Amino acid sequence: MKLSVVVSAYDNWRSLDFTLQGWRLQTRPPDELIVAEDSAFPEVADVVARHAAQAPFPLRHLHQADEGFRKCLVLNRAIAAAQGDALLFTDADCLPRADLLQHIERCLRPGHFVAAGSHIDLPASFHQHTLRPEMINDQRVFDPDFLAAHGVRAPRLRLLRGGWLPRLLDRLTPRDAFVGNCSAAWRADLLRVGGFDEAMGYGAEDRNLGIRLNHAGVRGRRVRHSLVMLHLDHPRAYSRAAEVQANQAWNRQLARTGQTLPRRSVLIAS
């Protein structure tokens, strides 16, 4: 299996710096990584170029002009450009533990996508002032005792390392939902459903893709105890309640149909 990682980015280049370090440390390296930037900040390009020079895998940078929230478009462009058999989608502010892709490879099966589930948040006070590259290199930032010593409360059962218990907990907490912070799917399945719906703004656009994958017969597996990520928390000035509510209403309507294709996508042949 060839695995492509797609990291969505905007103006969060400091978080992206930490995140790309996390991907470079994977025990099972990605076969390629694409930073999909819905903007054109030179700081993002600088961070990508620096890590590309050191990464043991191809690291590419896709970007587009900032013309409002067009994350779905740049992600679809990344799907079109990706070379992997399977694609993992995540964000520039999501720091992966070193064994994440190893578990993706173990968990992903034909006819399924896999998802990590909800965030484990690192507050801005920690990741902006305390977090250092060496804490990622030696993986102590994923140690709940280390986090507690710095005033960060993290659920211990979400930071387990290997063994039978994370797999058991994954089976006890099933959920069929595609989540943007960490979900992986087969590229052929993504193309079959036309990728992300570019008619959607911020909020629940990832769930929309999962609903359409379900309609195409692709089921989701949540393995949040095996797939460990830390979210570098931040304000969400781009979130607009009316837009989120409209997206959620569309998803509820979509769930009652058998529709597999999005309303708008560059991946759908005209």
Outline the fold blueprint.
Blueprint: E1 3-9, H1 13-24, E2 32-37, H2 42-52, E3 59-63, H3 71-81, E4 86-91, E5 94-96, H4 100-107, E6 112-115, E7 121-122, H5 124-127, H6 133-137, H7 144-149, H8 164-172, E8 182-186, H9 187-192, H10 205-215, E9 219-222, E10 229-232, H11 241-255
Parallel strand pairs: 1-2, 1-4, 2-3, 6-9, 7-10
Antiparallel strand pairs: 4-8, 5-10, 6-8
Describe this structure in words.
The chain is an alpha/beta fold and 270 residues long. The protein has a single domain (3-255), classed as Spore Coat Polysaccharide Biosynthesis Protein SpsA, Chain A (Alpha-Beta Complex), CATH 3.90.550. Helices cover 36% and strands 17% of the residues. It is built from eleven helices and ten strands. The strands form two sheets. It has a seven-stranded mixed sheet, sandwiched between helices. A three-stranded mixed sheet has the order 5-10-7. Helix 1 packs parallel to helix 2 (42-52) and helix 10 packs parallel to helix 11 (241-255). The two termini are 30 Å apart. The mean pLDDT is 93.
Mean pLDDT: 93
Write down the secondary-structure element order. Answer: EHEHEHEEHEEHHHHEHHEEH
CATH hierarchy class name:
Alpha Beta
Q: What composes the largest sheet?
A: 7 strands, mixed
CATH fold category name: Spore Coat Polysaccharide Biosynthesis Protein SpsA, Chain A
Output the structural class: alpha/beta
The number of distinct structural domains comes to 1
Going by CATH, the homologous superfamily would be: Spore Coat Polysaccharide Biosynthesis Protein SpsA, Chain A
Query: How far apart are the first and last residues' alpha carbons, in Å?
Result: 30 Å
Radius of gyration: 18 Å
Q: Give helix % range.
A: 25-40%
- The proportion of residues in beta strands is 15-25%
Shape label: globular
Low-confidence stretches: none
